[in-house]
Design brief:
Strand content: 25-35%
Number of strands: 15
Shape: globular
Helix content: 10-25%
Largest sheet: 4 strands, parallel
Radius of gyration: 15 Å
Structural class: alpha/beta
Amino acid sequence: TILACINTGNVRGATTVGGIAGSNVNVNNGTVAACLNIGSLNPQATNLGAIFGSTSDSQNRVIRTSFWLVGSAEHVITEVGVAVGAGTVGMTDTSALDERELRNTTPPADPAGEQPVVNRLNAEMEANYPQWSAFYQYVMDPASTGITWPMPMKK
């Protein structure tokens, strides 16, 4: 399981490129949960996916509550990119979001501090990984952290 990670770097591989993992070949597992890719990926890669570049087909591979920045995994044949370049996985609450959505500014920020993406990431952790959420949570607080993307931080 890859849990609560964020890629902000540029990935320039030529064949199999993914924002979270290049290739997932684990035949028994392979879950990615509560992850973000905002890094730029090589649009010329043969197998290009915002989360996985490729994966062996399996019912056991799942991507849950994970997002990527629109355009970060843009292949020459798609407009917003795909989660997996080659192969299939089950996906739940996984999609491309624009910068404003990822930074929780669309819809306009709620005066009560509502942060839809942060809330979705934390809800995934609380529901499926309570041992993680007891110690860590996603936050989006540029004033105190200097980070302008949702980030997993120690409580």
